[in-house]
Amino acid sequence: MKKKAILPILFMLMTSSIFSQNNVSDFTIVFGSCSKPTLPQPFWEDIISQKPNVFIWGGDNVYADSENMEKVANDYKAQNAIEGYKKLKINVPIMGTWDDHDYGQNDAGKEWIMKKESQQLFLDFMGVSKNDKRRNQEGVYTSQVFEIDKGSVKIIVLDTRYFRTALKRSTTEENRYEPYQSGEGTILGEKQWLWLEKELASNYSDFLVIVSSIQFLSAEHGFETWGNFPHEVKKLQDLLVKNAVRNAIIISGDRHISEFSSAKVKGLKYPLIDFTSSGLTHSYSKYTGESNRYRLGRVISVPSFGVIQFNFDSYKVTMKMIGESNTVLQDYKREYPKN
Fold it and tell me: Which of 40, 53, 267, 336 has the largest count of CB atoms under 10 Å?
């Protein structure tokens, strides 16, 4: 797909923190991924200063990587004990998903032997009540609608771990994994797909944010991505079109880099954006480049967090990658259709 075919007139990429200071936000989402409690955590005060309506964990919220559930629990306790994060939790609703390192094993999927026990500890960390339905379902997927006087935002949190087929090892040295062919394997699993279709069919919100721990559009780097299951990518895109889903945006983490990706999906009135923000405490500092035919702008390879600001009067959405000292490293701004 030609990049020039998917760049809207309103598309703006900036590297100045001056940009959008006067932007009016009716609803603000802040999100991030890849956080080690043992490393300095410089962003919590900056995140609070954004006055978010919700904070979303994008996965790898701690780095437990263990069959020892006591260790996993202690890692979550360490994260919860960080003063800046404690302050955020008091004032802002928290949502989120997990990824492999808080799920329990690098790149693990449905084969992970401790996933049931790990799920309960994750839900504890997220402050989910003991009588919540997620305590008895398989997987941590959920949704919530946030309504204000001017409009609403629905957030759908996916679980890309619990049901995911084991990845296919690459036959080349350049990549770690390669895509399945002929419709083999799944990311979400049958139960979660059925749930997701119902969530999309019943959606009435002005904007929809889909949380995926792994990237949805970028698929050429050879690591974890929805692109390892191309039929699953098409399935989600087809569901968005079938249900005429308004103004969907995907957010992702995992990669220790931040970037914007955009694809034109036939049948949607807007380009589908995948906003990757990773990581909160560490990043891919040795990044030298990789292909992504859907990329907008440049790759940010220093620690950062993501901000999405919604204006319900203009239907403008401003997405920001924010780094040290609240500096805006890159922005993407566009106007979405009102109907």
Answer: 336
